[in-house]
Please model this.
Amino acid sequence: MKNIFKLFILGTGIASLTACSDFLDQTSPSEMTDETVFNSAAYTENALNKVYAGLTLDHTYGARIPLNFSTNSDIELVDGLDNTGSGNSVAVNERGAGNFNPSSSWTKLDDNWSECYEIIENANIVVEGIENSSLIAEGNSSRAKMLRYKGEALALRAMIYFDLIRNYGDVPMKFETTKSDGSNIYLPKTDRDAIMEHLITDLEEAIDYLPWAGESSYTTERITKGFAHGLLARIAMSYAGYSIRESSKAGEGYETLANSDATYPTQRPGAAKRTELYTKALTHLDAIIASGTHQLNPSIENEWYLINQQSLDQTYRENIFEVAHGLNYSGEMGYTVGVRLTGVTTTYGYGNSSGKVKLTAPFLWSFDKDDLRRDLTCATYEIKPGSSNEPVETMQSNSPFAIYVAKWDPRKMSDSWRTASKAATTKFGYGINWIVLRYADVLLMYAEALNELQGADVVGPTCGLTAREALLKVRSRSFDSSNQAAVTAYVNAISSGSDFFNALVDERAWELAGEAVRKYDLIRWGLLDSKITESKEQYMELITKAPASLYYKMKSSDANAIDMSSICWYEAPANVADYKSVTGWGGEDPTNGKNVAYLPYISWGLNRVVKNRHLLPLGATTISDSKGSLKNSYGFE
Model:
Protein backbone atom coordinates (compact mmCIF):
# COMPACT_ATOMS: atom_id res chain seq x y z
CA MET A 1 0.00 0.00 0.00
CA LYS A 2 2.76 2.41 0.87
CA ASN A 3 4.72 1.81 -2.33
CA ILE A 4 1.82 2.17 -4.71
CA PHE A 5 0.60 5.28 -2.90
CA LYS A 6 4.04 6.84 -3.39
CA LEU A 7 3.87 5.98 -7.10
CA PHE A 8 0.52 7.73 -7.35
CA ILE A 9 1.87 10.84 -5.65
CA LEU A 10 4.95 10.87 -7.87
CA GLY A 11 2.71 10.55 -10.90
CA THR A 12 0.68 13.64 -10.17
CA GLY A 13 3.01 15.96 -12.02
CA ILE A 14 3.83 13.89 -15.06
CA ALA A 15 0.22 13.37 -16.12
CA SER A 16 -0.37 17.09 -16.50
CA LEU A 17 2.09 17.42 -19.35
CA THR A 18 -0.48 18.76 -21.78
CA ALA A 19 -1.54 21.49 -19.36
CA CYS A 20 1.70 22.50 -17.67
CA SER A 21 4.73 23.14 -19.89
CA ASP A 22 7.27 23.57 -17.09
CA PHE A 23 6.52 20.62 -14.87
CA LEU A 24 10.15 19.46 -14.85
CA ASP A 25 13.03 21.86 -14.66
CA GLN A 26 15.46 19.33 -16.12
CA THR A 27 13.41 18.84 -19.28
CA SER A 28 12.82 21.35 -22.01
CA PRO A 29 9.09 22.21 -22.02
CA SER A 30 8.89 21.79 -25.78
CA GLU A 31 10.06 18.18 -25.47
CA MET A 32 7.25 17.11 -23.13
CA THR A 33 4.44 16.87 -25.64
CA ASP A 34 1.71 14.25 -25.79
CA GLU A 35 3.75 12.48 -28.44
CA THR A 36 6.76 12.36 -26.12
CA VAL A 37 4.76 11.11 -23.17
CA PHE A 38 2.70 8.43 -24.88
CA ASN A 39 5.52 7.06 -26.94
CA SER A 40 7.25 6.12 -23.69
CA ALA A 41 5.73 3.32 -21.62
CA ALA A 42 7.33 4.76 -18.47
CA TYR A 43 5.90 8.24 -19.01
CA THR A 44 2.53 6.73 -19.88
CA GLU A 45 2.46 4.86 -16.60
CA ASN A 46 3.24 8.10 -14.78
CA ALA A 47 0.36 9.76 -16.62
CA LEU A 48 -1.88 6.90 -15.50
CA ASN A 49 -0.66 7.35 -11.93
CA LYS A 50 -2.23 10.77 -11.86
CA VAL A 51 -5.61 9.20 -12.56
CA TYR A 52 -5.10 6.86 -9.60
CA ALA A 53 -3.87 9.74 -7.42
CA GLY A 54 -7.18 11.53 -7.88
CA LEU A 55 -8.93 8.65 -6.10
CA THR A 56 -7.11 9.38 -2.83
CA LEU A 57 -8.52 12.85 -2.27
CA ASP A 58 -11.01 13.60 0.51
CA HIS A 59 -13.43 14.85 -2.13
CA THR A 60 -13.39 11.53 -3.99
CA TYR A 61 -12.62 8.18 -2.31
CA GLY A 62 -10.94 9.53 0.79
CA ALA A 63 -14.26 10.50 2.34
CA ARG A 64 -16.95 11.97 0.13
CA ILE A 65 -18.03 9.03 -2.08
CA PRO A 66 -17.60 6.11 0.34
CA LEU A 67 -18.57 7.84 3.59
CA ASN A 68 -20.57 11.04 3.10
CA PHE A 69 -22.72 10.21 0.08
CA SER A 70 -23.54 6.57 0.86
CA THR A 71 -25.92 7.16 3.78
CA ASN A 72 -28.70 6.96 4.82
CA SER A 73 -30.27 3.55 4.44
CA ASP A 74 -32.39 1.27 6.58
CA ILE A 75 -29.32 0.12 8.51
CA GLU A 76 -26.86 3.03 8.27
CA LEU A 77 -27.13 6.61 9.49
CA VAL A 78 -24.95 9.65 9.63
CA ASP A 79 -25.52 11.87 12.66
CA GLY A 80 -28.87 13.30 11.75
CA LEU A 81 -31.32 16.07 12.27
CA ASP A 82 -32.42 17.49 15.57
CA ASN A 83 -35.99 16.82 16.64
CA THR A 84 -37.34 20.08 15.25
CA GLY A 85 -37.40 18.60 11.77
CA SER A 86 -36.43 21.92 10.24
CA GLY A 87 -33.10 20.62 9.01
CA ASN A 88 -31.81 24.15 8.52
CA SER A 89 -28.98 23.78 10.98
CA VAL A 90 -27.55 20.69 9.34
CA ALA A 91 -28.50 20.81 5.67
CA VAL A 92 -25.28 22.53 4.57
CA ASN A 93 -23.04 19.58 5.44
CA GLU A 94 -22.83 15.81 5.21
CA ARG A 95 -25.59 15.36 7.78
CA GLY A 96 -28.08 17.12 5.56
CA ALA A 97 -26.96 15.04 2.59
CA GLY A 98 -27.27 11.85 4.61
CA ASN A 99 -30.82 12.73 5.56
CA PHE A 100 -31.79 13.43 1.92
CA ASN A 101 -31.99 17.12 2.74
CA PRO A 102 -28.83 18.45 1.06
CA SER A 103 -28.19 22.05 0.15
CA SER A 104 -26.63 23.05 -3.16
CA SER A 105 -24.62 25.59 -1.16
CA TRP A 106 -22.66 22.77 0.54
CA THR A 107 -19.36 23.51 -1.17
CA LYS A 108 -18.11 19.94 -0.92
CA LEU A 109 -20.58 19.02 -3.65
CA ASP A 110 -18.71 21.38 -5.97
CA ASP A 111 -15.39 19.94 -4.81
CA ASN A 112 -16.52 16.39 -5.49
CA TRP A 113 -17.86 17.31 -8.92
CA SER A 114 -14.72 19.16 -10.01
CA GLU A 115 -12.34 16.49 -8.71
CA CYS A 116 -14.31 13.70 -10.39
CA TYR A 117 -14.29 15.50 -13.72
CA GLU A 118 -10.58 16.19 -13.34
CA ILE A 119 -10.02 12.44 -12.97
CA ILE A 120 -12.16 11.88 -16.06
CA GLU A 121 -10.14 14.45 -17.99
CA ASN A 122 -6.88 12.81 -16.95
CA ALA A 123 -8.23 9.41 -17.95
CA ASN A 124 -9.29 10.85 -21.30
CA ILE A 125 -5.75 12.15 -21.81
CA VAL A 126 -4.34 8.68 -21.18
CA VAL A 127 -6.86 6.91 -23.42
CA GLU A 128 -6.39 9.28 -26.34
CA GLY A 129 -2.64 9.39 -25.87
CA ILE A 130 -2.37 5.61 -26.04
CA GLU A 131 -4.74 5.38 -29.01
CA ASN A 132 -2.45 7.78 -30.92
CA SER A 133 0.78 6.12 -29.76
CA SER A 134 3.07 4.21 -32.09
CA LEU A 135 3.71 1.79 -29.23
CA ILE A 136 0.39 0.01 -29.75
CA ALA A 137 1.25 -1.05 -33.28
CA GLU A 138 1.07 -4.80 -33.88
CA GLY A 139 4.40 -6.40 -33.10
CA ASN A 140 5.67 -3.58 -30.88
CA SER A 141 7.24 -4.92 -27.69
CA SER A 142 5.35 -2.36 -25.58
CA ARG A 143 1.93 -3.02 -27.13
CA ALA A 144 0.54 -5.28 -24.38
CA LYS A 145 1.77 -2.97 -21.61
CA MET A 146 0.32 0.13 -23.26
CA LEU A 147 -3.02 -1.57 -23.81
CA ARG A 148 -3.05 -2.61 -20.15
CA TYR A 149 -2.64 1.04 -19.24
CA LYS A 150 -5.50 1.92 -21.56
CA GLY A 151 -7.66 -0.73 -19.93
CA GLU A 152 -6.91 0.74 -16.49
CA ALA A 153 -7.80 4.25 -17.65
CA LEU A 154 -11.06 3.05 -19.23
CA ALA A 155 -12.08 1.23 -16.04
CA LEU A 156 -11.10 4.10 -13.73
CA ARG A 157 -13.11 6.50 -15.88
CA ALA A 158 -16.06 4.11 -15.75
CA MET A 159 -15.87 3.85 -11.96
CA ILE A 160 -15.92 7.64 -11.57
CA TYR A 161 -18.77 8.09 -14.01
CA PHE A 162 -20.78 5.37 -12.30
CA ASP A 163 -20.45 7.08 -8.93
CA LEU A 164 -21.37 10.44 -10.45
CA ILE A 165 -24.53 8.85 -11.87
CA ARG A 166 -25.42 7.09 -8.62
CA ASN A 167 -25.13 10.33 -6.69
CA TYR A 168 -26.30 13.02 -9.14
CA GLY A 169 -28.32 11.20 -11.80
CA ASP A 170 -27.93 12.62 -15.32
CA VAL A 171 -24.55 14.31 -15.77
CA PRO A 172 -22.49 15.69 -18.69
CA MET A 173 -20.92 12.94 -20.82
CA LYS A 174 -17.38 13.74 -21.86
CA PHE A 175 -15.28 10.92 -23.29
CA GLU A 176 -12.73 13.10 -25.05
CA THR A 177 -10.07 15.52 -23.93
CA THR A 178 -10.87 19.21 -23.69
CA LYS A 179 -10.53 20.95 -27.04
CA SER A 180 -8.35 24.01 -27.34
CA ASP A 181 -11.28 26.09 -28.60
CA GLY A 182 -13.31 25.22 -25.50
CA SER A 183 -16.18 23.82 -27.55
CA ASN A 184 -16.64 20.79 -25.31
CA ILE A 185 -16.28 22.44 -21.90
CA TYR A 186 -19.81 23.65 -21.12
CA LEU A 187 -21.76 20.48 -21.75
CA PRO A 188 -25.37 19.78 -20.80
CA LYS A 189 -26.53 16.67 -18.98
CA THR A 190 -26.78 13.35 -20.81
CA ASP A 191 -29.31 10.68 -19.88
CA ARG A 192 -27.52 8.35 -17.47
CA ASP A 193 -28.63 5.26 -19.41
CA ALA A 194 -26.71 6.45 -22.47
CA ILE A 195 -23.65 6.98 -20.29
CA MET A 196 -23.96 3.51 -18.75
CA GLU A 197 -24.25 1.95 -22.22
CA HIS A 198 -20.94 3.63 -23.07
CA LEU A 199 -19.34 2.50 -19.81
CA ILE A 200 -20.34 -1.11 -20.43
CA THR A 201 -18.79 -0.97 -23.91
CA ASP A 202 -15.61 0.58 -22.50
CA LEU A 203 -15.33 -2.11 -19.83
CA GLU A 204 -15.83 -4.89 -22.38
CA GLU A 205 -12.83 -3.48 -24.23
CA ALA A 206 -10.81 -3.00 -21.05
CA ILE A 207 -11.35 -6.61 -19.96
CA ASP A 208 -9.50 -7.82 -23.05
CA TYR A 209 -6.42 -5.79 -22.11
CA LEU A 210 -6.21 -6.24 -18.36
CA PRO A 211 -4.41 -8.97 -16.38
CA TRP A 212 -5.92 -10.86 -13.48
CA ALA A 213 -4.65 -9.89 -10.04
CA GLY A 214 -1.32 -11.61 -9.46
CA GLU A 215 -0.35 -11.43 -13.15
CA SER A 216 2.12 -8.89 -14.61
CA SER A 217 2.89 -7.69 -11.04
CA TYR A 218 -0.65 -6.34 -10.65
CA THR A 219 -2.03 -6.32 -7.11
CA THR A 220 -5.56 -5.49 -6.06
CA GLU A 221 -4.49 -1.85 -5.65
CA ARG A 222 -4.54 -1.63 -9.43
CA ILE A 223 -7.37 -2.16 -11.87
CA THR A 224 -7.43 -5.78 -13.00
CA LYS A 225 -9.58 -7.99 -15.17
CA GLY A 226 -11.57 -9.14 -12.15
CA PHE A 227 -12.53 -5.62 -11.15
CA ALA A 228 -13.49 -4.65 -14.70
CA HIS A 229 -15.79 -7.69 -14.85
CA GLY A 230 -17.27 -6.82 -11.45
CA LEU A 231 -17.72 -3.12 -12.18
CA LEU A 232 -19.46 -3.94 -15.45
CA ALA A 233 -21.83 -6.25 -13.58
CA ARG A 234 -22.49 -3.63 -10.91
CA ILE A 235 -23.29 -1.03 -13.57
CA ALA A 236 -25.55 -3.41 -15.49
CA MET A 237 -27.54 -4.30 -12.37
CA SER A 238 -27.88 -0.64 -11.41
CA TYR A 239 -28.98 0.20 -14.95
CA ALA A 240 -31.63 -2.53 -14.69
CA GLY A 241 -32.91 -1.04 -11.46
CA TYR A 242 -34.94 1.95 -10.36
CA SER A 243 -33.79 5.56 -10.22
CA ILE A 244 -35.55 8.89 -9.97
CA ARG A 245 -35.73 10.60 -13.37
CA GLU A 246 -35.63 14.17 -14.65
CA SER A 247 -38.79 13.37 -16.63
CA SER A 248 -40.91 10.32 -17.36
CA LYS A 249 -39.59 7.63 -19.72
CA ALA A 250 -42.80 5.63 -19.67
CA GLY A 251 -43.14 6.17 -23.42
CA GLU A 252 -39.88 4.28 -23.88
CA GLY A 253 -41.16 1.20 -22.09
CA TYR A 254 -39.90 2.12 -18.62
CA GLU A 255 -41.82 0.93 -15.56
CA THR A 256 -42.76 3.36 -12.79
CA LEU A 257 -42.36 2.54 -9.11
CA ALA A 258 -45.58 2.58 -7.10
CA ASN A 259 -46.19 5.80 -5.13
CA SER A 260 -43.73 7.61 -7.38
CA ASP A 261 -43.40 11.37 -7.75
CA ALA A 262 -45.69 12.76 -10.44
CA THR A 263 -43.09 15.17 -11.85
CA TYR A 264 -39.91 13.22 -11.20
CA PRO A 265 -40.92 9.54 -11.38
CA THR A 266 -38.76 6.68 -10.15
CA GLN A 267 -38.49 4.24 -13.05
CA ARG A 268 -36.61 1.25 -14.39
CA PRO A 269 -36.23 -0.28 -17.87
CA GLY A 270 -38.83 -2.72 -19.16
CA ALA A 271 -38.62 -6.49 -18.70
CA ALA A 272 -36.75 -7.25 -21.94
CA LYS A 273 -34.01 -4.72 -21.23
CA ARG A 274 -33.70 -5.88 -17.63
CA THR A 275 -33.23 -9.46 -18.81
CA GLU A 276 -30.51 -8.30 -21.20
CA LEU A 277 -28.72 -6.42 -18.42
CA TYR A 278 -29.00 -9.20 -15.84
CA THR A 279 -27.72 -11.67 -18.43
CA LYS A 280 -24.74 -9.45 -19.11
CA ALA A 281 -24.06 -9.04 -15.39
CA LEU A 282 -24.28 -12.79 -14.83
CA THR A 283 -21.79 -13.48 -17.62
CA HIS A 284 -19.19 -11.21 -16.06
CA LEU A 285 -19.76 -12.33 -12.47
CA ASP A 286 -19.50 -15.93 -13.64
CA ALA A 287 -16.15 -15.10 -15.27
CA ILE A 288 -14.74 -13.84 -11.95
CA ILE A 289 -15.87 -16.95 -10.08
CA ALA A 290 -14.71 -19.34 -12.80
CA SER A 291 -11.24 -17.78 -12.89
CA GLY A 292 -10.47 -18.83 -9.31
CA THR A 293 -8.32 -15.71 -8.91
CA HIS A 294 -10.49 -14.32 -6.13
CA GLN A 295 -11.87 -16.30 -3.21
CA LEU A 296 -13.40 -15.70 0.17
CA ASN A 297 -10.90 -15.43 2.99
CA PRO A 298 -12.05 -18.40 5.14
CA SER A 299 -11.95 -16.11 8.18
CA ILE A 300 -14.19 -13.04 8.09
CA GLU A 301 -12.34 -11.76 11.15
CA ASN A 302 -8.96 -12.09 9.42
CA GLU A 303 -10.35 -10.34 6.35
CA TRP A 304 -11.01 -7.19 8.37
CA TYR A 305 -7.85 -7.55 10.43
CA LEU A 306 -5.77 -7.41 7.24
CA ILE A 307 -7.67 -4.35 6.01
CA ASN A 308 -6.99 -2.53 9.28
CA GLN A 309 -3.37 -3.64 9.17
CA GLN A 310 -2.98 -2.07 5.70
CA SER A 311 -1.85 -5.48 4.49
CA LEU A 312 -2.79 -6.79 1.05
CA ASP A 313 -4.16 -10.32 1.02
CA GLN A 314 -2.10 -12.04 -1.66
CA THR A 315 -3.52 -15.47 -0.84
CA TYR A 316 -7.28 -15.15 -1.33
CA ARG A 317 -7.53 -11.68 -2.90
CA GLU A 318 -11.06 -11.26 -1.59
CA ASN A 319 -10.72 -7.50 -2.06
CA ILE A 320 -10.91 -7.25 -5.84
CA PHE A 321 -10.03 -3.54 -5.97
CA GLU A 322 -8.81 -1.23 -3.22
CA VAL A 323 -8.21 2.50 -3.48
CA ALA A 324 -4.68 2.79 -2.12
CA HIS A 325 -4.37 5.35 0.66
CA GLY A 326 -1.22 6.44 2.45
CA LEU A 327 -0.67 6.86 6.17
CA ASN A 328 -0.43 10.55 7.10
CA TYR A 329 -1.66 11.40 3.60
CA SER A 330 -5.22 10.27 2.97
CA GLY A 331 -8.18 8.11 3.88
CA GLU A 332 -10.86 8.55 6.56
CA MET A 333 -11.60 4.85 7.04
CA GLY A 334 -11.17 4.32 10.76
CA TYR A 335 -11.77 8.02 11.40
CA THR A 336 -15.19 8.90 9.97
CA VAL A 337 -16.29 5.27 10.07
CA GLY A 338 -15.18 2.80 12.72
CA VAL A 339 -14.97 2.19 16.47
CA ARG A 340 -14.95 5.63 18.10
CA LEU A 341 -11.84 6.94 19.86
CA THR A 342 -12.67 9.78 22.25
CA GLY A 343 -9.75 11.67 23.78
CA VAL A 344 -6.02 11.02 24.12
CA THR A 345 -4.93 7.62 25.40
CA THR A 346 -1.53 6.12 26.10
CA THR A 347 -2.03 3.38 23.50
CA TYR A 348 -3.61 5.30 20.63
CA GLY A 349 -2.33 8.81 21.18
CA TYR A 350 -4.40 11.59 19.62
CA GLY A 351 -7.23 9.31 18.49
CA ASN A 352 -10.40 11.38 18.71
CA SER A 353 -12.03 9.85 15.62
CA SER A 354 -15.53 11.03 14.72
CA GLY A 355 -17.29 7.76 13.88
CA LYS A 356 -20.00 9.71 12.05
CA VAL A 357 -21.25 6.71 10.10
CA LYS A 358 -23.54 4.73 12.41
CA LEU A 359 -25.62 1.55 12.42
CA THR A 360 -28.98 0.96 14.09
CA ALA A 361 -30.31 -1.23 16.87
CA PRO A 362 -32.90 -3.02 14.67
CA PHE A 363 -30.06 -3.97 12.35
CA LEU A 364 -27.97 -5.39 15.19
CA TRP A 365 -30.97 -7.38 16.42
CA SER A 366 -31.58 -8.73 12.90
CA PHE A 367 -28.42 -10.86 13.02
CA ASP A 368 -28.59 -14.50 13.99
CA LYS A 369 -27.15 -14.64 17.51
CA ASP A 370 -24.39 -16.99 16.26
CA ASP A 371 -23.44 -14.88 13.23
CA LEU A 372 -19.81 -13.82 13.66
CA ARG A 373 -20.49 -10.72 11.60
CA ARG A 374 -22.68 -9.13 14.28
CA ASP A 375 -19.84 -8.25 16.65
CA LEU A 376 -17.42 -7.66 13.78
CA THR A 377 -19.85 -5.11 12.36
CA CYS A 378 -21.65 -3.45 15.27
CA ALA A 379 -19.86 -1.65 18.11
CA THR A 380 -22.13 -0.43 20.92
CA TYR A 381 -19.14 1.01 22.71
CA GLU A 382 -16.35 3.53 22.27
CA ILE A 383 -12.81 3.79 23.57
CA LYS A 384 -12.16 6.52 26.14
CA PRO A 385 -9.20 7.47 28.35
CA GLY A 386 -9.24 5.99 31.85
CA SER A 387 -7.83 7.46 35.05
CA SER A 388 -4.25 7.10 33.77
CA ASN A 389 -5.18 7.82 30.16
CA GLU A 390 -5.20 4.11 29.37
CA PRO A 391 -7.82 3.08 26.76
CA VAL A 392 -11.06 1.84 28.32
CA GLU A 393 -13.87 0.27 26.33
CA THR A 394 -17.03 2.04 27.46
CA MET A 395 -20.50 0.70 26.68
CA GLN A 396 -23.00 3.14 25.18
CA SER A 397 -26.16 3.96 27.08
CA ASN A 398 -29.40 3.75 25.08
CA SER A 399 -28.03 4.88 21.71
CA PRO A 400 -30.03 2.77 19.24
CA PHE A 401 -29.22 4.96 16.24
CA ALA A 402 -25.56 5.55 17.03
CA ILE A 403 -23.89 2.15 16.86
CA TYR A 404 -20.38 2.44 15.46
CA VAL A 405 -19.16 0.32 12.54
CA ALA A 406 -16.73 -2.16 14.09
CA LYS A 407 -15.14 -3.25 10.80
CA TRP A 408 -12.61 -0.45 11.19
CA ASP A 409 -11.07 -0.84 14.63
CA PRO A 410 -8.03 0.91 16.20
CA ARG A 411 -7.28 -2.25 18.19
CA LYS A 412 -6.57 -4.01 14.88
CA MET A 413 -4.60 -1.22 13.24
CA SER A 414 -0.93 -1.44 12.39
CA ASP A 415 2.01 -0.40 14.56
CA SER A 416 2.83 2.30 12.02
CA TRP A 417 -0.68 3.73 12.43
CA ARG A 418 -0.28 3.76 16.23
CA THR A 419 3.04 5.55 15.91
CA ALA A 420 1.46 8.16 13.66
CA SER A 421 -1.53 8.56 15.98
CA LYS A 422 0.72 9.08 19.00
CA ALA A 423 2.62 11.78 17.13
CA ALA A 424 -0.51 13.54 15.88
CA THR A 425 -2.08 16.63 17.43
CA THR A 426 -4.92 16.91 14.92
CA LYS A 427 -6.76 14.85 12.33
CA PHE A 428 -4.48 12.90 9.96
CA GLY A 429 -4.81 10.49 7.04
CA TYR A 430 -5.34 7.01 8.48
CA GLY A 431 -4.01 5.36 5.31
CA ILE A 432 -6.45 2.42 5.33
CA ASN A 433 -7.48 1.43 1.83
CA TRP A 434 -11.06 1.86 0.68
CA ILE A 435 -12.37 -1.47 -0.58
CA VAL A 436 -14.40 -0.79 -3.71
CA LEU A 437 -15.40 -4.40 -4.43
CA ARG A 438 -15.13 -7.63 -2.45
CA TYR A 439 -15.55 -11.17 -3.70
CA ALA A 440 -18.39 -11.68 -1.22
CA ASP A 441 -20.28 -8.96 -3.09
CA VAL A 442 -19.57 -10.75 -6.38
CA LEU A 443 -21.03 -14.00 -5.07
CA LEU A 444 -24.17 -12.26 -3.82
CA MET A 445 -24.66 -10.30 -7.06
CA TYR A 446 -24.18 -13.55 -8.97
CA ALA A 447 -26.84 -15.22 -6.81
CA GLU A 448 -29.20 -12.29 -7.40
CA ALA A 449 -28.71 -12.24 -11.17
CA LEU A 450 -29.04 -16.01 -11.58
CA ASN A 451 -32.13 -16.17 -9.38
CA GLU A 452 -33.66 -13.30 -11.35
CA LEU A 453 -33.07 -15.05 -14.66
CA GLN A 454 -33.45 -18.76 -13.91
CA GLY A 455 -34.12 -19.32 -10.23
CA ALA A 456 -31.99 -20.34 -7.29
CA ASP A 457 -31.09 -23.87 -8.38
CA VAL A 458 -29.86 -23.58 -11.96
CA VAL A 459 -26.11 -23.80 -12.47
CA GLY A 460 -24.44 -20.70 -13.89
CA PRO A 461 -22.79 -20.43 -17.32
CA THR A 462 -19.31 -21.81 -16.57
CA CYS A 463 -18.41 -21.59 -12.88
CA GLY A 464 -20.59 -24.51 -11.78
CA LEU A 465 -22.40 -22.70 -8.95
CA THR A 466 -26.11 -22.29 -8.40
CA ALA A 467 -27.42 -19.10 -6.82
CA ARG A 468 -28.16 -21.07 -3.66
CA GLU A 469 -24.60 -22.38 -3.48
CA ALA A 470 -23.20 -18.87 -3.93
CA LEU A 471 -25.33 -17.59 -1.05
CA LEU A 472 -24.28 -20.55 1.08
CA LYS A 473 -20.60 -19.77 0.51
CA VAL A 474 -21.01 -16.27 1.90
CA ARG A 475 -23.24 -17.18 4.81
CA SER A 476 -21.38 -20.30 5.95
CA ARG A 477 -18.13 -18.30 6.25
CA SER A 478 -19.81 -16.23 8.96
CA PHE A 479 -20.61 -19.09 11.34
CA ASP A 480 -18.30 -21.45 13.19
CA SER A 481 -18.17 -25.17 12.52
CA SER A 482 -20.78 -26.05 15.15
CA ASN A 483 -23.42 -24.00 13.28
CA GLN A 484 -22.83 -25.18 9.72
CA ALA A 485 -25.73 -27.63 9.66
CA ALA A 486 -28.14 -24.87 10.71
CA VAL A 487 -26.72 -22.52 8.07
CA THR A 488 -27.19 -25.11 5.34
CA ALA A 489 -30.73 -25.83 6.52
CA TYR A 490 -31.54 -22.11 6.46
CA VAL A 491 -30.28 -21.64 2.90
CA ASN A 492 -31.89 -24.83 1.60
CA ALA A 493 -35.28 -23.85 3.03
CA ILE A 494 -35.49 -20.63 0.98
CA SER A 495 -37.88 -20.92 -1.96
CA SER A 496 -36.55 -19.90 -5.35
CA GLY A 497 -37.74 -16.58 -6.71
CA SER A 498 -39.05 -13.74 -4.54
CA ASP A 499 -38.28 -15.48 -1.23
CA PHE A 500 -34.72 -16.05 -2.36
CA PHE A 501 -34.43 -12.41 -3.46
CA ASN A 502 -35.65 -11.27 -0.03
CA ALA A 503 -33.06 -13.51 1.62
CA LEU A 504 -30.38 -11.84 -0.52
CA VAL A 505 -31.66 -8.41 0.52
CA ASP A 506 -31.01 -9.44 4.12
CA GLU A 507 -27.70 -11.18 3.45
CA ARG A 508 -26.26 -8.21 1.62
CA ALA A 509 -27.10 -6.05 4.65
CA TRP A 510 -25.38 -8.43 7.08
CA GLU A 511 -22.32 -8.86 4.85
CA LEU A 512 -21.78 -5.36 3.45
CA ALA A 513 -22.99 -2.92 6.13
CA GLY A 514 -20.94 0.27 6.28
CA GLU A 515 -19.28 -0.41 2.91
CA ALA A 516 -21.21 2.12 0.76
CA VAL A 517 -23.38 -0.58 -0.81
CA ARG A 518 -26.73 -0.69 0.98
CA LYS A 519 -28.22 2.67 -0.02
CA TYR A 520 -27.53 2.04 -3.70
CA ASP A 521 -28.91 -1.50 -3.47
CA LEU A 522 -32.15 -0.21 -1.99
CA ILE A 523 -32.43 2.47 -4.68
CA ARG A 524 -32.04 0.04 -7.58
CA TRP A 525 -34.48 -2.42 -5.97
CA GLY A 526 -37.03 0.36 -5.40
CA LEU A 527 -36.98 -0.39 -1.67
CA LEU A 528 -35.30 2.68 -0.17
CA ASP A 529 -38.42 4.33 1.23
CA SER A 530 -40.18 1.14 2.31
CA LYS A 531 -37.10 -0.33 4.02
CA ILE A 532 -36.42 2.86 5.98
CA THR A 533 -40.06 2.86 7.09
CA GLU A 534 -39.78 -0.82 8.00
CA SER A 535 -36.68 -0.12 10.08
CA LYS A 536 -38.55 2.50 12.10
CA GLU A 537 -41.39 0.04 12.68
CA GLN A 538 -38.87 -2.56 13.79
CA TYR A 539 -37.53 -0.13 16.38
CA MET A 540 -41.03 0.37 17.78
CA GLU A 541 -41.29 -3.40 18.11
CA LEU A 542 -37.79 -3.69 19.52
CA ILE A 543 -38.46 -1.44 22.51
CA THR A 544 -41.23 -3.80 23.60
CA LYS A 545 -38.85 -6.79 23.58
CA ALA A 546 -35.35 -5.55 24.41
CA PRO A 547 -34.23 -5.42 28.04
CA ALA A 548 -34.48 -2.03 29.75
CA SER A 549 -30.87 -2.47 30.91
CA LEU A 550 -28.00 -3.90 28.90
CA TYR A 551 -25.86 -6.21 31.02
CA TYR A 552 -22.26 -7.13 30.28
CA LYS A 553 -18.95 -8.05 31.86
CA MET A 554 -15.38 -6.92 31.40
CA LYS A 555 -12.79 -9.52 30.46
CA SER A 556 -11.22 -11.37 33.36
CA SER A 557 -7.84 -10.94 31.66
CA ASP A 558 -8.31 -7.21 30.97
CA ALA A 559 -10.48 -5.01 33.19
CA ASN A 560 -10.56 -2.30 30.51
CA ALA A 561 -11.94 -4.52 27.73
CA ILE A 562 -15.55 -5.66 27.32
CA ASP A 563 -16.17 -9.39 27.14
CA MET A 564 -18.30 -9.40 23.99
CA SER A 565 -19.54 -12.92 24.66
CA SER A 566 -21.05 -11.78 27.97
CA ILE A 567 -23.38 -9.09 26.57
CA CYS A 568 -27.02 -9.93 27.27
CA TRP A 569 -28.62 -8.47 24.14
CA TYR A 570 -31.95 -10.25 24.35
CA GLU A 571 -32.82 -10.60 28.03
CA ALA A 572 -31.49 -9.78 31.47
CA PRO A 573 -29.30 -12.44 33.12
CA ALA A 574 -30.51 -14.32 36.19
CA ASN A 575 -27.65 -13.00 38.34
CA VAL A 576 -27.58 -9.29 37.48
CA ALA A 577 -25.34 -8.55 40.46
CA ASP A 578 -22.44 -10.21 38.61
CA TYR A 579 -22.74 -7.79 35.67
CA LYS A 580 -22.13 -4.15 34.83
CA SER A 581 -25.04 -2.41 33.10
CA VAL A 582 -26.13 0.63 31.13
CA THR A 583 -29.58 1.77 30.06
CA GLY A 584 -30.77 -0.52 27.28
CA TRP A 585 -33.13 -0.07 24.33
CA GLY A 586 -36.22 -1.58 25.92
CA GLY A 587 -38.89 0.01 28.03
CA GLU A 588 -39.08 3.34 26.24
CA ASP A 589 -42.45 5.10 26.28
CA PRO A 590 -43.78 4.61 22.71
CA THR A 591 -45.75 7.86 22.90
CA ASN A 592 -43.08 10.36 23.92
CA GLY A 593 -39.78 8.55 24.40
CA LYS A 594 -36.62 10.33 23.33
CA ASN A 595 -35.75 7.93 20.51
CA VAL A 596 -39.34 7.51 19.38
CA ALA A 597 -39.50 11.29 18.96
CA TYR A 598 -36.39 11.08 16.80
CA LEU A 599 -37.86 8.52 14.39
CA PRO A 600 -39.78 10.87 12.06
CA TYR A 601 -36.59 12.78 11.31
CA ILE A 602 -34.48 9.82 10.19
CA SER A 603 -34.01 10.40 6.46
CA TRP A 604 -36.93 12.81 6.69
CA GLY A 605 -36.03 14.62 3.47
CA LEU A 606 -36.52 11.57 1.24
CA ASN A 607 -40.16 12.45 0.52
CA ARG A 608 -40.35 16.00 1.88
CA VAL A 609 -40.26 17.97 -1.39
CA VAL A 610 -40.18 15.26 -4.05
CA LYS A 611 -40.99 11.61 -3.45
CA ASN A 612 -37.96 9.31 -3.33
CA ARG A 613 -35.49 12.16 -3.86
CA HIS A 614 -32.39 10.07 -3.25
CA LEU A 615 -30.00 12.03 -5.47
CA LEU A 616 -27.79 15.00 -4.58
CA PRO A 617 -28.18 18.47 -6.07
CA LEU A 618 -25.51 20.00 -8.22
CA GLY A 619 -23.43 22.46 -6.24
CA ALA A 620 -24.23 26.15 -6.57
CA THR A 621 -20.77 26.95 -7.95
CA THR A 622 -20.99 24.07 -10.44
CA ILE A 623 -24.19 25.58 -11.81
CA SER A 624 -22.93 29.17 -11.88
CA ASP A 625 -19.72 28.11 -13.63
CA SER A 626 -21.59 26.15 -16.30
CA LYS A 627 -22.64 29.26 -18.22
CA GLY A 628 -26.25 28.11 -18.33
CA SER A 629 -25.61 24.55 -19.51
CA LEU A 630 -26.52 22.98 -16.15
CA LYS A 631 -29.38 23.43 -13.71
CA ASN A 632 -30.78 21.56 -10.76
CA SER A 633 -33.75 19.26 -10.86
CA TYR A 634 -35.86 17.15 -8.43
CA GLY A 635 -37.03 20.28 -6.59
CA PHE A 636 -33.52 21.44 -5.71
CA GLU A 637 -32.69 25.11 -6.16
Notes: Confidence is low (pLDDT under 50) at residues 5-31, 82-89. The longest helix spans residues 143-168. The chain is about 40% helix and 10% strand.
